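Feature request disguised as a bug report, sorry. It would help if multi-protein outputs had a clear separator. Right now it looks like this:
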Amino acid sequence: MARRLLFLAIFVFAASSIPSLAEELSDEQAKFFESKIRPVLVKECFSCHSNQTGNAKGGLRLDTVELTRIGGNSGPAIVPNDLDESLLYNAINHLDFVMPPKRKLPESVIRDFREWIEMGAPDPRVTEPTVLEVQITPEDIERAKQEFWAYKPPVAGKAPQVKNRSWSKSEIDRYVLGGLEQASMTPPKDAPAYQILRRLSFDLVGLPPSLDQIESFERAYTKDPDHAVAEMVDTFLDQPQFGERWGRHWLDIARYAESNGRDVNMTFPHAWRYRDYVYDSFNEDKPYDRFLQEQIAGDLLPAKTDEQWATNLIATGFLVLGPKNLAEQRGTQFTADLVDEQIDTTTRAILGTSVACARCHDHKFDPIPQTDYYALAGIFVNTVSYFGTPASKYGSIGGVQNRNSGNLLRLPIDDPSDFEQRLSPEKVAELKSELDSVVQEIAESRRSRRMNDAANPQSINNIIRLTVKAEMLSAIVGSIDEEGNPISYCMGVQPVDRMQTVRVLERGEIDRPGQVVPRGFPAVLQSNPTVVPNDSSGRLEFAKWISSRENPLTARVMVNRIWQHLMGTGIVRSTENFGTTGLAPTHPELLDYLAVEFMNSDWSIKSMVRKIANSHCYRMGTEFRQDCFEQDPDNRLLWRMTPKRLDAESIRDAMLFVSNQLELDRPRASEVAKAGFMRVRDGNLVNPAAFVGISAGMSRSPGRFQSMMRDAYTVRQSGGERLDMINAKYRSVYLPIVRGESPRVLEVFDFAEPSMVVGERESSNTPNQSLFMLNNPFVIAQSEALARLVYQSSEDRSEQIQTLFRLVYSRDPRPSELAAIRSFIDTFEVDGDQRTRAVRTYVAICQSLFASADFRYVN
């Protein structure tokens, strides 16, 4: 117990397979079980907890060693060598549970069970596993490789010959124009220069162009459109805002969040390191294959420096950021669900295929047998996930307990956040001494409680209080070194010490194991089966395979995502489903061409963005043409550029940018890092330390959301309304993302659900968005700031209006708009002196422009 609590959330549930079915027992151990334990189980327990009787109260069955150790709804019945965690032993002592319900077993029987558990709970009841047959045959898989487009390696063919050669400026243009000409269509007129610039600016850096950029681009575009576009593309690619913009796209896919979500919504104070790693990777133009390898197996890659090693560790946060059922009582079930979430995220994000659909049975539509799923599960089950949530197993504040705590990975460099407190060595020694005393007191209380004939409510409450206090003290002690300096941690993964195999689970149920499956990868995506060495988890091999040229999907899926973000829709419009139930590519030859070019460019994302953004297709206008619509209503052939609504971050950032309020410097860490380890419940941050008398030495102060995140996060007022980040001026990509509590400005404009892999966000148009633009204090504050800026820009009203339109719309006002604005200024009645009236009039105008479609959409 002392060891488990000594460091920050030191208990880590080591990923494990289904319990071994054939344990080596001595004759004495087998005899002890058969004479002392089995008769009691049969006589006293099986009537309520057995498959044989068809009764499994509380989900508990005791027929086999596997079922006994898996346990029921409350957790494992027996944990070898651990009396405190063995719920069956607690039950026969009438402690947490009372079994048998009407009487207590003799003390001699209880002693036998104690001796049995302390000797390792040897159990000779061996059950031969069922061999589960799969319906998808090797012949089915080979046929799919030969027939289905997604399982064939991409091959760059020759672009089609086109009639309008002057229009085509690249291979991309010829592929698109060839489809249009085959359908007897023509490409549309180019968009106006300001629209092209606005399109480039929002697509590449997520911000509107500046006034200087508007003027210089218009001059350059008049002289040489190709050169003007190419120069502006390079300018945007070199800005740090590019990595923030495109890194946020990846965070949507990586289901990034700074809390766990679900019933036990614990914060992730170190998640921000992964966020910054992603932004930096995109700015560095890190090769995509390397980017993937670092996230899947960075801890297994060689590193020449401590800084590189730290980067590799942080990258593996990709695998542990997902939501977890922290209240799950059964460790084996928790691991199975954690592995399933990792498999689902990895395959959908990178391969556009959900292998997790084969967890319970063969994939219903794609040639992925159930055995392929468990071959992958064998890789991830040999991985320890360090997600960093302190335990609240015995005591919880205001709700469900966190029974699945997680450790964190210590970084090889010192890089503490600005919020972490330094303590004196004397204070460190004092806290450690206090922790040791609390742990000893817990042990003594447990021993005393076991010796009593009945549970004592006062002693139970005392143990809960002491346990919570020990857990919080452990968190403090684990976060500092001997000198009291904060230790730098990250979320991530590590390999297990001893490799294990997994079994197929019938219907995906942990208590129905089948045959052992060797570790491996989906057969339909391999030209030759990969053999994973017995002494390897296979994760490094998996990372190299999934990011290789031989994989038919990885390059296709990524270039499709890049095309989608630039052109509005993907070539494959079902971005997470490249399987048989997904949509076929609209331009399959173009998709393969881009995939091959992507790999040939050393997997450079910037090169692919540059290639698409410099194409003539990217400059197409949005003009609606009835004849083309009737022939191709879904715009599959790209007969025009479809207008795109700005995403949530761009809407907020654009308002800050045009009002000259946006701070472009990266903020340090996150408001969640500032809050520390907390429980999110009903809009509040709850710190158990506040309830157990720990105050001195706490590196985080307890409190509510309102006090912890007043300036940078959604605050619930007493009336239930939300007040958004009026005082936070940094980019929206740095706002804290807590599952279930997304900032209002992001939520109302279809922010990605952070518990899911989201390759393409929704783009709705709802009354809530209009009301937000009309009433939200953030919008009003930016309207006021913009109004003052415009009013002070010139003494000439026409110039003021022109500046306003250029800032908000990147263009000059049309005559009708100029007339409407002038009329509004002349008739708008407001109290105050001349300057006050003018500014307040402009505030109303600015808010109207923010609420308009021209501001929220990019043509």
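(second protein starts here, but nothing in the output says so)
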Amino acid sequence: MQTIRVVSLFLAVVSSFLSLHAATFIVPSDESLIAAADDIVVGTAVTSLVERNDRGAIVTRYTLRIEEVLKGDRAAGSYLVLTERGGHLGDSAKYIPGTPQYVAGQRYLVFTDASTDDITTLVMALGQFRIVDDGQRRLAVRSEVFGFDQNLEPHRELVRDASAFATHIRGVLSRSVGPSTAYFVDEPADRFEAASHWTPQVDAGRGIYLLSDGGSFYRWSPPTATMVRNGSQPGVDGPASVTKAFQQWNSTDSNIDYDDGGVDNSATGGLDVDDGKNAVLFNTALQPPFSSAAAIGGITDSTGPSTFEGESFWKIKEVDVVVNNITISSQNCLNSVMTHEVGHTLGFKHAAESPNHADAIMNWQVQCGWNGVLKQYDKDAAAVVYGNGCSLPGITTHPQTKTIFAGATTSLSVTATGTAVTYQWYIGTAPDTSTPTGTNSSTLSNLSPSSTTSYWVRVTNACGSVNSNTATVTVQACNPPSITAQPQPKSTTYGTAANMSVEVTGTGPLTYQWYVGNTGDTSDPIAGARSATPSIALVATARVWVRINGQCSPPADSQAVTITVTCPDVVVGTPTATGFGANWTLNVTASTTSTGPLKYEWFRGSNPGSSVAPKVGEGQSLPVVVTGVTQFWAKVTNACGVSKASDLVVVAPCQLPVITTQPADRTIVKNTSTQLAVVATGDGVTIQWYQGIAPDKTILLGSGASIDVAPLTSTSYWASLTNTCGEISTRTVLVSVSEPTCNAPAITTQPTPAQEVKGGSTVTLTVVAEGTATLHYQWYEGLSGDATSPVGTDSATFTTPVLGLSASYWVKITNGCGEASSATAQITVPKGRRRSTRH
């Protein structure tokens, strides 16, 4: 589906003015634009993306790389995305006149509007300036600007000196300068106008009146529509304006048949939504960027393209006219506006874009005094596009200027539209008809002028004629090719290209083709060998030569030379075999200096290279099944046919280890150890133990049928059993670790509580206690609990020093779980006896 909206912008004017201006701006001053812009940047367009927004309307999102920031918070080197209404999406399109487009690689000075969710160019085309170079300086050029200045005088768009304009913008923003015209260049902007994707490149035919997209024009087929109405316009008679517009277009010499379908309040789609209804909507608030428009009319839904009498058209399916909620100055003005906008729904473009437009309802400037009455231009447009009116021929492709060498031939052609056209070619510059040439054909063939000559063609039918552009055939002198250095013989190995060369003089461009064979034999051209210095890869020794064609005859043929191709040897490694039981895989490696694939073939037998050995398969790796000891060997052949046989590889079936007793899970007390063990049968079994879950081999613990482990926390273990046949794994076992039980010391036998000894004697005291882990003993002199005088060693037994006086002793017993204190052991020494020295 093709969607396009053709827009005319109307500014409300007071009743003292006699005209409205279609697609017309009241152009603000540069100072007003500078103040209104959210950002002012210089950047280069990078990419564009056409998509539908959340309302289903086609928009184009242009990405610009910012080079300079004149206003706003953006940074040089960052990217700015501008969203503009319209674009081409698949088989759908939308076009709004006055909406700027950004061409990749083009530099722009841009004023932005960030008042909506999507950032747009400020005031449509008024906020975009292309940066162009006229060979002397860089200029800022604004396009598609029609209307009045702030004094309501006709606006004349001038070019700006880009550097001076940027300086002025900075000065305005810094308030260091006021309004100025010093940066203007007295050149009209249309001198630098860029070609538009939307501008049809035609000279005559229906296309001169119609809007286009991609070379196809918009046209009803047939031009029949019933348009409903919704709403009313304050101060004027809206339905009367619709009736007037329909009467004017229906009365032309055409098939146009528009009908008033009456009021339909459900017709609300308007410009943004394809609701399947042709409608005129009155007093409807238009959203940006159309908010300053009085009315917009155009094609809301179309499909195609299709052809009609040799021309390509988009088929119109739905049209709409929307009138803004503003006051229109008079009924005459609304009638002219409505007739103009209905013309857009018929696909007609503005008359200012076509020849012979003069006075026209479809012109840029619509007179209120015309009261919606069509002018001759509008009637002609209706007759040509939709009626039986005569249509001039149109030239869509002009003859193109060419350059040939003396003695060569060329042709010129023209592509034209229209019915029953004839062609007359002329020598000279259009419109000089003094020297006719050629026949009634769109192509002038077999041209071989002796000197530079100009040509043009006149295309004629019953309606008139149109002249083509002048095309010049420039004739240059030509020298046939001549070989100055012949090719030389080369030697190379198979798969390696020989670098050949030939040196030639002559008028170029020259073309080359190398051949296999003797000079003159063109039966075997070498693919891709089409230069003076090709790389030629042959599969066998052969002779080659080259033919050189220039811009004039005869061609030059070189001598034939030999490229000698040798085939390199093949180096084969020792084959290997991996597997177990009956299933094995053979493998061999080989190398050669030639390019191309190697062919691997496997044979069974004890004599490598034997021509009678049975072949068992192909491939660098080959799976085989054996039932007993078997010998194999491989033959490897390179791309040029050299073969080598490998050594023998012997395959003997064997048995993997068999586990008869798996290791068991264990539970231990922390700081103790346990033993893990596996029992297996098989020859040459190697057992390795790992910490972790099989097959994790990160932590190797040791080798053997058993291993002692003492983990501090619960840990998993497993063992790998291997022999020459392969590897198997035990189950993963878990050694769980528990904390030990802790008991405080408890005295089961106290030291002797009371003793009497003679002076000069010693006494041995003993205590018996129990408790978890190691017990520690500390003896003290004094009553139990008095720890001021420690004596003795860390032992359950304590021997006193030689006693001369009575003394008391006790012991404290400790471990990690607590302590216990003994009772007091009282030792009495009777008085009057010899006193000992206390230690």
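Even a blank line would do. Unrelated, but nice: The two ends are 118 Å apart (CA to CA).
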